[in-house]
Write the structure tokens for this entry.
Amino acid sequence: MKKSLLSMNGAIMMLKQKKRTVFSVQKNVNPHFKEVWTSKKPYNILKGGRNSFKSSVIALKLVFMMVAFIMQGEKANVVVVRKVGNTIRDSVFNKIQWAIKLFGMTNRFKATVSPFKITHKRTGSTFYFYGQDDFQKLKSNDIEDIIAVWYEEAAEFNDEEDFDQSNVTFMRQKHALAPYVQFFWSYNPPRNPYHWINEWSDRMTGEPDYLVHISSYLDDELGFVTDQMLKDIERIKSNDYDYYRYIYLGEPVGLGANVYNMNLFKPLDELPSDDRIILLFYSMDTGHSVSATTCGFYGLTAKGKVIRLNTYYYSPAGRVRKKAPSELSKDIHEFITKTSTQEYWRGARIHKRTIDSAEAALRNQYYADYGQHWLPVAKKKKVDMVDYVHDLLAQGRFYYLKIPYPIDMKYADDNEIFIEEHKKYQWDEKTLNTDDPKVIKEDDHTVDEFQYFCTANAKELKLKV
């Protein structure tokens, strides 16, 4: 390859275009990431806690690498992969555009969303974005001239074989002037130390072709972590220290037997007088003739509090005649009609109704009866859905009404079963030291629907996404 105009070790990189744009490495990349920025390793694993800026550093380096080829009139391509394609737009697509803007080159690239691509207008150099869930499409695309590949949120993938399948494809399409395709992985280490990616990165540490880099917000020397962010971190640190270690320090702290810290479920005698409810949510777990059907009713306040307002809970246990889906549909509709119109949250609208994705009978019955869709939750592994709940709890934003405002309906007006089921909720100790830990599946119906609620509404609730 021709000698690059851009020094990978230099503090300042100058791009001579119509007007000179100066990108300062020293001002935009923390010293802790120097070995990443200067890495000559083909494989680079970046793991760390939230707000460590590892993804930002990768995005900047990928733009930096592409620009080195562009300045020599060469076309060079970069592939960015996430596990699920529908997460691309709000994550890596925006992150690369942010990095391009820092280089002062926004007007020299064209971004499209169908498909997701960001293309340099003069050379055709392109950032391609894929969801690994559409692997066949990814595998069949002949991109050519590839210089780098980035797997963002790598812990979401099933195992290292997910990478192996596509890596060979990308290697075959290497740019002729590049010594190799440089691969990057970024992720927050899962809480479970036996998760496959924790074991994989440990195994790769010390391998000659691999850089394994660890970071946290404590490594920030340039002031990217704002005072507001630090206050949020300190709040979580004081609420749940283990969760702080896991989410911000990136430590696999383990699971323990009890799933939740019940001190973080905050009881309310009444709604706060200075913080109105602005959005309403419903979440349902169903059982029909075998186990309980429950529907949780939640409110989101203007200040970001999440409050469990009421619970519908019907159990068929011990009953000779059990409710049919048509009867449950009527019950749930009555529950929603009565709760959503109470004066305590007048003006708040229903934002989303979430249901177990495995449930079809009641969902179809409800639509037939009332023309209203319940949205199936996109289920994840149990440990991952639990993490959404942990995030909400650790932020100190979850409350429940000890005594719901009554609607005078059978099987409703009682949040106690919600608390009792969470108190009893435990990991199965036989599965703790495995890649896929399980919970004990007993009396967990309100627990499941709470997880569905947090998972399906993570963006609205400002949880990890």
About this structure: The longest strand covers residues 277-285. The chain is about 30% helix and 20% strand. Confidence is low (pLDDT under 50) at residues 1-18.
